Amino acid sequence: MAPLTIVGDTTLIGISTLTSEINFYTRLIRLKDKATGHPLFTILQVELACAKCKDDGKAIECVHLLHLVPRWQSSERHRRLKTIMQDRPDLIESELSGLAFDSLQQCYRPADIEHMFKQEPPPPELHQEIFICVDPAGGGPQSDFSFISFQRVKGQVILVGMDSISTKEPSRQYALLENHIHELRKNLYRSSSKVTVYVERNLGFEAEHAKRALSHLAPSVSFYEDLKAGRVGVLTTDNVKYASMELLNIMLREKRVSLCKYCHSRDLKGMKLKLRDQLEIFSWQFKQALNTFQKDRCALSGKVGGMKDDLCIALMLGVYFTSVGILEKDLQRLA
Questions:
Q1: How far apart are CA 129 and CA 198, in angstroms?
Q2: Of 1, 105, 264, 333, whose CB has the highest number of CB atoms within 10 Å?
Q3: Element holding 286 (H helix, E strand)
Q4: Is the pTM higher than 0.85?
């Protein structure tokens, strides 16, 4: 397909049934021209379920758009076929209603994610502490070095920056993080803000290496240390990942996460799109046991169909560990 699309006066026509939210066509539908901001393709998407029924979770029962059935089909036959296929709602949505069904159990509702990007953040406070959560590129070729910077203001989480780089060279990773901190401080409201960095330390000494590489920024930049373990950084267990997902989900539903008007990134539009996609894809994934000696497994991940989840993980862990820190400080004051 690629060689043909670069030939002048060539038109590509694609048609397909959307079998799930994560597929080749749904990703093409969302693409936009970087120069104009308009959709890259002319799209005609035929759906036979109205917006209200979709929002109410009754897409498979919807009959309000049957008047849009093509003239060579029968709306009455559509009703009968829905009755026949009532035990397969996924096929009804994809084959009859033109909808991509949720083959995975998404953790975050699209409406909550949309609101996060659109809502107005609370007014900034002068020199409020900045937290940066880093997900190092330790998960193989499907991982990037990614980080989210944010502030906590009156129970709200305000994203002030994000960035990602696909490289295994530590020098480039640390240079990007250091430059990000300098750029954040160019804003007068953050010029003297203390910066605390949380680095995931699941696979080795990534956190210690990062602290050493940026030691010249101390004392205004510090790295979180786990005093019980005697290690720099945070350890992500399954329980921590589940708890961080639930906490971020609650905060999204309560509309307590927003983006700062002066959010910093080398490619802000690209990073916002990447974060949105990763939040939408992040889901429960179930793997059936291959034999009687194994157990069925479930895991939280966004690495589906070539997608990555580093920015999403960084946001989840940042929200979780800063919330734990706030609780610990409150308990110390009460003690």
A1: 13
A2: 264
A3: strand 283-287
A4: no
| Confidence at residue 99, expressed as pLDDT on a 0 to 100 scale | 55
Say which DSSP state 94 is in: I
What is the CATH number for 316?
Answer: 3.30.420.320
Assess contact for 244 and 319: CB atoms under 8 A: yes
Pair 166, 144: CB distance under 8 Å: yes
What's the token pair of residue 6? 């670069």
User: Residue 150: what are its φ and ψ, rounded to 5°?
Assistant: -155, 170
Residue type at 208 in one-letter notation: E
The residue assigned the tokens 């033109």 is 98
Do 73 and 156 sit in the same domain of this protein? no
Find out whether 151 and 128 touch, Cβ atoms under 8 Å. yes
Residue where a domain stops, chosen among 59, 84, 103: 103
Question: Percentage of residues in the chain with pLDDT exceeding 90?
Answer: 43
What type of residue is 219?
P
Instruction: Please report which confidence band the pLDDT of residue 103 belongs to, taking 50, 70 and 90 as the band edges.
Output: very low
Q: Residue 267 is encoded by which pair of tokens?
A: 């490619």
178's enclosing H/E stretch is: helix 170-184
Digit-coded pLDDT (tens) for 37-96: 888 888 777 677 787 877 776 766 777 777 776 666 666 776 776 676 666 665 555 555
